[in-house]
Amino acid sequence: MKTGVWLVVLMAMGGLSLRALQPSHYDLIIRNAQIIDGSGSPAQRGDIAITAGRIAAIGKVRGSAKETLDAKGMVVAPGFIDVHTHAESVGSLPLAENFVRMGVTSIVTGNCGGSALDIGAFLTNLEKSPVSINVATLVGHNTVRSEAMGGSFKRKPTDDEMTQMKQLVEKAMQDGAMGLSTGLIYLPGTYSETPEIVELAKVVSAHGGLYASHMRSEGLEIRQAIDELVTIAREAKIRAQLSHIKLSGNASWGQAADILKRLDQARAEGLQIAHDQYLYTASSTGISVLIPSDAREGGREQLRQRLANPEQKAKIIADMKMGLLRNGRKDYQYAAIASYSKDRTLNGLRLPQAAKKARGSESLDDQIELIFEIELNGGASGVFHGIDEGDIQTFLQHPLTMFASDSGVRRFNEGAPHPRGYGNNARALARYTRELKLLRLEETVRKMSSLPAQTFGLKERGLLKEGYWADIVIFDPKRAQDLATYEQPHQYPKGIPHVLVNGQFVVRDGKHTNAKPGQPIRKEARR
Ligand SMILES: [Zn+2]
Predict the structure, then answer these.
(1) How confident is the model at residue 1 (pLDDT cuts 50, 70, 90)?
(2) Cα 244 to ligand 1 centre (Å)
(3) DSSP letter string, 360-396
(4) Beta-carbon neighbours within 5 Å of ion ligand 1
(5) Is residue 450 part of a domain?
(6) pTM for this one?
(7) What's the gap in Å between 162 CA and the centre of ligand 1?
(8) Which of 26, 172, 281, 350 is 20 to 30 Å from the Cα of 392, by its Cα?
(9) Cis (ω within 30 of 0) for the bond into 352?
(10) pLDDT of residue 526
(11) Which of 1-10, 236-245, 362-371 has the lowest mean pLDDT?
């Protein structure tokens, strides 16, 4: 009998693997690591062997490799998965350096209702022009609604438009979208009613996809907003993700425990709901959200016309002042301009200071005039300081809260964007785990790896496990630290020296290697 046959017989008899009989040769072995596998179980010492982009062995690894990395003193964990990003532009910033430098190896984009319209083309382009990171996407409700309903938004869709929206969502799901996202404070989604979303969510549910929502309110009306999320999950029989869970505006602070209780009650009836969170007391979105939706409905030209009418303008200003008052604010001091291409000297300034610079006065009326001016000149992104640290800490300890940045791909040194895009994952490791000890390190890693992978259905990722993709982050648990601040956001974290995507180093010794091993991640067809 030939040796090969004996091997097969032996393996069948004793359950021995080929590896045990014959020392293997791997692409890479990471030795002496403190392995945190992403499941939440305690760290263990060991080695990890990688071959052809996948984890080939884990534990005490014998054999040799083309390359060996000594990870003494380091934690080796699954690459972080950031399920809440706005990275439609990843093709033009393919290194995605702000993400990979904080240990992120996979992102989910298409959030808050905005995505590529042609999901198939978006994902295929990532194969034609590769990027450094794995990319999955949702299909955005606002994208689909704009396409089907044109510029006329403040109404229900006609039957034909509803049919078209369903077809667009169906096509996106067939093309590999992970699910549907809504952004219900944004145009035009803010004019949709719950049944419209339920209809679309049913299309997604038939594919086993997920529904992720930037809800209608994250402040005074958050309870009604959660009720809507729960209704959609229940009626469409769909898994739901509450995007960037938070309580905005100090009139709403201190209710995190109660909000979590409401979500737990919904789970008790069998619904699957999870949440993601960024670990900062400021939010970030377009400055345009400061202007009431009805004033912006139909687009910038419409806004210009409304502002040209003194009566309408007075009404818009009154609404804005009332909005401030309801949230217990006297002006827009809480808001900073992040990136305004028309006048970059305003970037980084709070609105009163920006009004002073641009208009010579920091009065509330001048702040409002500046907001109009910015919007009519193409808009700007902003950073809004309105979240309570206590609420953040309550939300982050819930076992179904995962950490996600809500960031886009950053162009280094451009504008004054929210620091979360450079620091969120490192901040979880440093501030909330090592310093405040609110979470075990293994739990923090789980919230950035297996929890997001399982929730969003990213197959064979999110765990250090034989056969899984070798998406790996290697960090120093004593030193890993975010350095990005509101004042100086363009700073990569420290203490995260190596990051591998699909078995290839994208960060090595703290530097981007320029490798682009990222893959598009498509939702698998339902079996
Ligand atoms: Zn959002």
Answers:
(1) very low
(2) 7
(3) S--SHHHHHHHHHHHHHTT--EEEEE-B-HHHHHHHH
(4) 112, 214
(5) no
(6) 0.94
(7) 24
(8) 350
(9) no
(10) 65
(11) 1-10
